[in-house]
Amino acid sequence: MPRKLAAILYADVADYSRLTGEDEDATHRRLREYLDFISASVEAQHGKVMHYAGDAVLAMFEAVVDALSCASTIQNDLKERNAELPKERKLQFRIGVNLGDVIQDRGDIYGDGVNIAARLESLAEPGGICVSESVYDAVSSSLPFSYGFMGEQKVKNIEKPVRVYRVVPADDSDGSDLSQGTSAGNVEQTIRFCTSSDGVGIAYASVGSGPPLVKAANWLNHLEFDWQSPVWRHVFAELSRDHQLVRYDERGNGLSDWEVDDISFDAFVRDLEAVVDAAGLDRFALLGISQGCPVSIAYTVRHPERVSQLVLYGGYTLGWAKRSQKDKETGKAMLELIRQGWGQDNPAFRQMFTSQIIPNATVEQMQWFNELQRITTSPENAVRLRLAFGDIDVNPLLPQVSTPTLVMHTRADALAPFDGGRKMASMIPGARFVPLESNNHLLLESEPAWQRFLAEIRSFLD
């Protein structure tokens, strides 16, 4: 079969099943209109549409600059076409662009180059573009875009992971310059990488100035997308006002290495050790959120001389596999949901987690969190992480905590029971416990409990 080096553009509609289920006729009419525009854009940029597959488009270009320019044109135009539509009716495409070998046969193209482009598309946000490192290397200095590194991503049937970049047009008022860091408000974070004790690469970020505050990793993190998310950005913006905030992606997700042998509680603690050493921190305050709490507790017991204050929010001391029979059954059911549907475009499976974490969120916040979970890790790693969380037991360590400790927990937390937070505080010598009035596991910017949370942290760390 003849092979050639080509730039491949793969585009697909986000959440297409839901859109057709709600209004099939209107969705199909709009899809035809958008596909006609995409086809014209491809031809205008000297490309060729190779085939359509339902709501997906595969196109080939001789020049990678043309392919990425076309992708940008498509997204900018579709953004305008969608502007007058309600959020739930917007027809948004994800686009992946790759530069690689393809096989041409009977008017179509196949091969690893196409498979990688399709994988890149699945990693993009609705309305967004992801490119491979081969594309980034070829065009990063010749087009007016910024790029955010998303780490190495596994592609089915391809042995070597692919390094992926997110594309942001320079004139996109909703975007931010990701080439030197990402922004939330008026602050910028700097992303670096370090190596854990077993050789796993861990991504960490630092932002702000002042006394250092380290946030332990939790389910799930992505240094770039968390920073943009309406679920997380207010947390990081406020905490970095008075402190140098250091946070990281735990192994198996985000920008840290995905292909790892060991995903375990002890490995999580070692990753935290690696990050604070790489950041050059001798003594710092430590913040644990959710399963970041037991990791923070274990680190504090191992290194009491380095932790000045310990803040624990929404945490637990026993993983789901060590609690009641009901908790065990629920945990196993969640694992099966992950196995069956984590990577699917339809967010129904991930929504099960989102509804427990932020039940009072807006539609936009839930969509962001669903998307964040999808791109942050693979289905296989999501299962491995959940299994590791289920095996946690730090109860024996609690009496050994000698660091001043603040524990906070929302009364109606559906993910981490309130009684678990209260018990945690009662078993740590001298710990102060603050109950918060909220149904959410992660506090949202609009609720009064968030302001109380922030005031308590500032008072405690002052």
Total strands: the figure is: 17
| Continuous helix count | 15
Major pleated sheet: 9 strands, mixed
Shape: elongated
The helix/strand class is: alpha/beta
Instruction: Say what the CATH topology of the largest domain is.
Output: Rossmann fold
Uncertain residue segments: 172-183
Q: What is the strand arrangement across the widest sheet?
A: 9-10-11-13-12-14-15-16-17
From the alpha-carbon coordinates, what is the Rg to the nearest angstrom? 23 Å
Residues in β-strands, percent: 25-35%
What percent of the residues sit in helical stretches (DSSP H or I)? 25-40%
CATH superfamily of the largest domain: Alpha/Beta hydrolase fold, catalytic domain
CATH architectural name of the largest domain: 3-Layer(aba) Sandwich
**How many individual domains?**
2
CATH class descriptor name of the largest domain? Alpha Beta
Terminal residue distance:
69 Å
Brief overview, please?
The chain has 462 residues and is of the alpha/beta class. The chain is built from 15 helices and 17 strands.
How would you characterize this protein structure?
The protein is of the alpha/beta class and 462 residues long. It is built from 15 helices and 17 strands. Helix 11 packs across helix 12. The protein has helices at 16-22, 24-44, 64-82, 112-123, 133-139, 223-228, 233-242, 265-278, 292-302, 325-341, 348-357, 363-376, 379-390, 418-427, 448-461, and strands at 3-13, 47-53, 56-61, 93-105, 108-110, 129-132, 145-155, 158-169, 182-184, 187-195, 201-207, 212-215, 244-248, 284-289, 307-313, 405-410, 432-436.
